[in-house]
UniProtKB/TrEMBL annotation:
This is PIHD3 protein. One of its GO terms (molecular function) is protein-folding chaperone binding. Signal peptide: none annotated. Residues 32-127 form the PIH1D1/2/3 CS-like domain.
Length: 137
């Protein structure tokens, strides 16, 4: 199996490199914070009682991804957050998190809030999906 390349000196094609790998930094000594990913969907009475829209509890029907990152001993001003379509990159003086997201997101419409009493950064991102029989909007 050989892959034809336009340039004879390249050792891989750009399609073979995973998206977001330019953010990888294996030599960074900062530790990775604890985090959890959950999915959120908007349901109404037509979904709960009648099942009219065809939504189910799977992640395929969710509209948002919520990421809760524990950042003990961190101030809000120390947090640097960069969100791309498939990558979340968080850096603080003591912690670093490079997270490849399970679904593409709309990086322009996200929200983040820092819960200082819990020392948690909560990031909510809108999933970018193609329209199908489940996701109409």
């Amino acid at each position: 199996f050989q892959v034809k390349s336009e340039n004879k000196k390249t050792i891989w094609n750009t399609e073979e490199v995973p998206e977001g790998s330019e953010f990888d930094d294996t030599w960074d000594p900062r530790e990775k914070p604890e985090y959890e990913i959950s999915f959120k969907q908007h349901v109404g009475t037509e979904d709960v009682f009648f099942g009219m829209t065809g939504k189910d509890p799977s992640t395929a029907c969710c509209e948002d991804i919520v990421i809760r990152i524990k950042l003990p001993e961190t101030k809000y001003s120390d947090i640097t957050l960069d969100i791309q379509d498939k990558v979340l990159d968080l850096r603080t003086p003591k912690k670093k998190l490079l997270l490849h997201l399970p679904y593409p997101v709309n990086s322009k419409e996200g929200r983040a809030r820092f819960l200082s009493e819990e020392e948690i950064l909560e990031v909510t991102l809108r999933v970018s999906r193609k329209l199908d029989f489940i996701n109409f909007s």
